Amino acid sequence: MSAAKNININLKIWRQKNASSKGSMETYKLDNVSTASSFLEMLDQLNEQLINEKKEPVAFDHDCREGICGMCSLYINGRAHGPDTGITTCQLHMRMFNDGDTIYIEPWRSKAFPVIKDLVVDRSAFDRIQQAGGFVSVNTSGNTIDANSIPVPKVDADKAFEAAACIGCGACVATCKNGSAMLFVGAKVSQYALLPQGKVEATQRVLNMVRQMDEEGFGNCTNTGACEIECPKGISLENIARMNREYLKASLK
Amino acid sequence: MAKSALLKSSIVKKYWMALTGLFLCLFLAGHLAGNLQLIFGTSQQFNEYALFMTTNPAVKLLSYVTYISIIFHAIDGIMLTIQNKKARPIGYAKTDGSSSSLASRNMAVLGTVILVFIATHMVNFWAKMHFDKNMPLVQKEIDNGMGGKQIQLVGTKDSQMPFMQLDQTGKLSKEFFEMIKAQTQGQYDLEVQDMTKIVNKKTGEVVFIGYKDLHKLTVDFFKDAKYGLYFTIGYVLAMLALAFHLWHGFQSAFQSLGVNNKFTPAIKFFGRAFAIIVPLLFAIIPVFLHLKK
């Protein structure tokens, strides 16, 4: 890897005061950004500059900054989590950009993810989908059975684990031309559908979760496959097909 | 599950999209096989095939399934597209299309092009075959026994009537019917029914069944001195749109129906081969007819 250097960049960032105000793209100039810094550190640097200029800093979501919490979002230069694959925005580094670049930074765009402020969106629609069926009912009255006492074929366990890797960041919705949440819901349905513990409530789960997904105003799946490519956790389209099968089975019951 | 979910649920809409789409792929294959007779068959063969396709009850049933599929596929597609647009009221200032194919992002546009094509195609051929009273009937030139030629209508196999002669314009003239009536002392009082049958009004006897010359209509359409070239180009462009639509649509239908397994690479390969070969063969036909001497 080449040594870190400093670059000067132009930023075009969506600024919106609050949920009800009309936002717009604003232009900022930021000098001396180290290519070794992460994208979020670059935004921290911008915010320091704005604070020094007595201006309102840019609001953006972030939490763990190690690619696991799913909190950071950002649609960067036309791609969810920016120009790299298999990463969240906190894992994106400024070495992906060149001196003099203009970088567009926008919030996730979806009717179901309304903008709260600047680049921060409300992703609680995902929580409501989860609450509609993304769980298994377990008796916790004191005689809980060890999960490992039920044999699970290794192949299924691996597939369920891959589906469960979904961090609910919403990149699938953001990148889908239809603002569809099928990859998220597909992953959540699949992680249970593949395991014996999940089979018990499989029928109600898929019907309720899909109904909630539709009610939230997410779009439909056109099978473009963009979500699979932009997903930081590499969730496969196979999960959407599995959800479609599960839904068909459940509808015919 | 509520009954309305059969139409309302996003996933069910996709099942319908997939099922109607796959049925229409079958229809395309059948339609292509018929059309290829324009290159590899005689005009007689093609017209007999056209007669079969417009009269056979099983074909009729299939044709209704096809009409319904086209309408349902279009309406369902429009509903899905409207919902999809609503799901993102504010678009992005900058987008990068690298994560999906051009065809997959433009299925609605491609579908609209195909729908417009189907409508014009049906006006140009289907409607004429079904409703046009002036559509030419199959005819041939024969010796009139006096060294000259005359035009005679060709009937279906068991209704060969040698006296069904035509006037200069190639049509059955009223004068001709009157002549027959006079010659037979009123025993044969003929009239045309259902555009192709000649019936003796007096006895109800069907004396002749001709059939429509779809071959001539098609050839004339693409060889038309003024517009033939434009019709041919339009047809080829519509087939290009169909190719892109199928390129994404064929394998996408299987994904929507939940088939994504070890057969998927084979389905994708077959779908892409289908998307290239079928529209290409369709498009070759008007080009062939247009250029044919």
From TrEMBL, chain A:
Domain of life: Bacteria
Organism lineage string: Bacteria, Pseudomonadati, Bacteroidota, Flavobacteriia, Flavobacteriales
InterPro entries reported in the protein's UniProt record: 2Fe-2S_ferredoxin-like_sf, 2Fe2S_fd_BS, 4Fe4S_Fe-S-bd, Beta-grasp_dom_sf, Helical_ferredxn, SDH/FRD_Iron-Sulfur, Succ_DH/fum_Rdtase_N
SUPFAM superfamilies, A to Z: 2Fe-2S ferredoxin-like (SSF54292), alpha-helical ferredoxin (SSF46548)
Occurrences of domain 4Fe-4S ferredoxin-type (ranges): 157-187
Family stated for the protein in its record: Belongs to the succinate dehydrogenase/fumarate reductase iron-sulfur protein family.
Protein name (database record): Succinate dehydrogenase/fumarate reductase iron-sulfur subunit
Necessary cofactors: [2Fe-2S] cluster; [3Fe-4S] cluster
TrEMBL record, chain B:
Keyword Transmembrane: yes
Lineage, uppermost ranks: Bacteria, Pseudomonadati, Bacteroidota, Flavobacteriia, Flavobacteriales
NCBIfam families named among the record's database cross-references: sdhC_b558_fam
Name recorded for this polypeptide: Succinate dehydrogenase cytochrome b subunit
InterPro entries: Cytochrome_b-558, SQR/QFR_C/D
Membrane-spanning parts: 65-82, 103-127, 227-248, 269-289
Species whose genome carries this gene: Flavobacterium lacisediminis
Keyword annotations: Membrane, Transmembrane, Transmembrane helix
